[in-house]
Design brief:
Blueprint: H1 2-10, E1 18-23, E2 29-31, E3 35-36, E4 40-41, E5 56-62, E6 65-71, E7 83-86, E8 92-95, E9 101-103, E10 106-108
Parallel strand pairs: 4-6
Antiparallel strand pairs: 1-2, 1-5, 2-3, 5-6, 7-8, 8-9, 9-10
Length: 109
């Protein structure tokens, strides 16, 4: 809800998000119909990540620049309501609906 309010207040016109491929080593550029450079990132508080090159990202223009809203994600076997954190190196943490936590596939009750 806060994101829609922010987007509405700070958009040049109606939000015209674009998607494209992350470019470079620092994840701060996206190539779509044009190149979007020096992007700021939008994420929930306390979550920080730099997307690796080749991921599909969504970019939204604002009146003071552009922001990367994130990358298009696949569910990867998650059920509705479950959460996964995963690095490009393969490490993962999964919060399951039944209270279990999986860290790199190892189950913690």
């Amino acid at each position: 809800m806060w994101l829609m309010s922010y987007m509405t207040k700070n958009s040049l016109a109606s939000p015209n998000a674009v998607k494209g491929d992350v470019q470079g080593n620092d994840g701060r550029a996206v190539m779509s119909s044009g190149e979007h450079k020096d992007l700021a990132f939008c994420a929930p508080y306390g979550v920080f990540a730099i997307p690796p090159a080749g991921e599909r990202a969504v970019v939204l223009p604002l009146d003071d620049g552009e922001v990367c809203l994130g990358v298009l994600a696949a569910a990867d076997g998650l059920s509705e309501g479950e959460v996964m954190l995963r690095s490009s190196g393969g490490a993962s943490i999964v919060l399951k609906n039944d209270g279990r936590v999986l860290i790199n596939g190892r189950v913690f009750e």
